[in-house]
Structure formats: C-alpha cells, structure tokens
Amino acid sequence: MTRKVGDLRSASGGLVWRAMAIGDLAMVDAIAARVHPDFPEDAAVFAERLLLYPDGCHVLAAAADSVGYLISHPWCGRPPSLNSLIRRIPPEANTYYVHDLALLPSARGSGAAATIVEQLVEQARRLQLASVSLVAVNGSVPFWEKQGFVVVAQDHDATGYGEDARRMVRHLA
Q1: pLDDT at 67
Q2: What is the pTM (predicted TM-score) of this model?
Q3: Given this structure, which CATH class describes domain 15-171?
C-alpha cells in the first residue's frame, strides 16, 4: 500500500519524506540515539508505533541515507509515558500525538520539519481530531511555537523527559 507523503525535493535540497517501513527501524533507532541521547527508548516502542499506526510513521530520506523520522498517532488524554508501549490506538482518540520528530543536524533548517508538521496537522483534521499534541524536549519549544503550538499545563508524569520538557498543543478549528 502506498501512502502519500510530502515530496520536499524542490524546497529542501533533495530531502523527501516517505512512508516508514519495518526495514527502517534500525535506522530510526540509530537516529534516536544520536538526536535524543538523554531520552532512550527501546526499539520495541518504535516498532509498536509503526505496526499500530503506519500512516503516522515517516522517514526523511536524502539520496541513499535517512536523516530523520517522524512517529505520530491518534491518542486520547495525557501523553504516553516515555519508553512505554501503548498496546492500541484508542478508538476515542481526540488528539493527534507527535511521539517523536527527529532530524540529524544535516537536515535541520531545511524546512523539512515544518513541512511534515503541516502534513500531520492536515491528517489530524481529516481524522476530525480536536488537536495535535506533543511533549517538547531538548529546547525545541521555539520551533513548535512557530508551528502554532502553545505550552499547556503539565498534567502528566514528565519523568524521563527532562527538566525543560513542555507539553504543547495546537488546537484545530
């Protein structure tokens, strides 16, 4: 099955978002270890998200290399705990949760992240979800604010996410 994802060739120097496949999981794990060394997650977490909601999993490709990934899925309520299995996509989902958007330094500033964020916002609208939500880490709040997200009260256990972690939401109208 082919899923339509954005083609960024013209806007970002040959970078293309494509659907993630099982064969990409080792690369996703390697990028996660480089980009988020303070937030380790088991490979099983990435594999589970891909199996549960493949439409929310994408890889940013540059020629023969992968330079980033996005893992996202519909969700309900508080964000899932870091490094935890979710077992299922809740049928009562009311938000589109960004589990992780990670780009290697070579891909940052290319516009690729903003492009995939807009695509997942459109996906959330098609699913008639009320919002897109995430936990911002590594000082990424300014990036997410530029994408229309606002910081909201920490109503979840932020253990493991770091002191600068902020829950953020973009409400969809």
Answers
A1: 97
A2: 0.90
A3: alpha beta
